[in-house]
Design goal:
The structure holds 2 protein chains of 2 kinds. Chain A is built from no helices and 11 strands. Chain A is an all-beta fold. Chain A starts with a strand and ends with a strand. The model of chain A has no long low-confidence stretch (mean pLDDT 92). The chains are: A mainly beta, B mainly beta.
């Protein structure tokens, strides 16, 4: 199993550009989520999905869109990039949501810089 | 709003020293997880604690969940350079019962040889 994969690993955008961060998992996990990580702020939830066709907002959803057409893929779209979106983005998946025993498996991250 | 506060935020010690990292909240959680993250990689789960007062050991790492399930600690005995990394606590099943994990801001540990 490849686990959770993310592409690209690094990206530089100009303000106003759009792009899609890709995330895929091969563990047949129902629950997938996107986090951003900024210095001194831990991980903050952007959007999450409890299954194909179902998505919901997390703590910091503004400026980001998601969709979940398949169990395996959960792309994150930046419609008009802003410097405040400079961050490291992590995708994660788990077997179910909120179960106390559940392990979240994280991808390697995408480091995004918006100029 | 549920918050998890970790302390200290940064710790630099010599190899062989002991250390404790704290994770505190005013909210009750059903479970608390500890992750370790190395530079350029995603967090990796170390342990999940679910019962108030529970203690789990993972080699030189000892994890404890507070009796009231509002706090947790991570103690490392005889730290080694390989322990260097970012340690994150995350709470699940809190009062909002959203099924989402709430992360602390992390503790960066540097162990010097």
């Amino acid at each position: 199993n490849a686990g959770v994969t993310q592409t690209p690993k690094f990206q530089v955008l100009k303000t106003g550009q759009s792009m899609t961060l890709q995330c895929a998992q091969d563990m047949n996990h129902e629950y997938m989520s996107w986090y951003r990580q900024d210095p001194g702020m831990g991980l903050r939830l952007i959007h999450y999905s409890v299954g194909a066709g179902i998505t919901d907002q997390g703590e910091v959803p503004n400026g980001y869109n998601v969709s979940r057409s398949t169990t395996e893929d959960f792309p994150l779209r930046l419609l008009s990039a802003a410097p405040s979106q400079t961050s490291v983005y992590f995708c994660a998946s788990s077997y179910s949501i909120g179960a106390w025993w559940d392990t979240q498996y994280f991808g390697p991250g995408t480091r995004l810089t918006v100029l | 709003t549920q918050l998890l506060e970790q302390s200290p935020q940064f710790l630099s010690i010599q190899e062989g020293e002991n250390l404790t990292v704290y994770c505190n909240s005013s909210s009750v959680f059903s479970s608390l997880q500890w992750y370790r993250q190395e530079p350029g990689e995603g967090p990796v789960l170390l342990v999940t604690v679910v019962t108030g007062g529970e203690v789990k050991k993972l080699k030189r790492l000892t994890f404890q969940f507070g009796d009231a399930r509002k706090d947790s600690s991570l103690h490392i005995t005889a730290a080694q350079p390989g322990d260097t990394g970012l340690y994150l606590c995350a709470g699940a099943g809190g009062s909002s019962n959203t099924g989402k994990l709430i992360f602390g801001q992390g503790t960066t540990l540097q162990v010097k040889p």
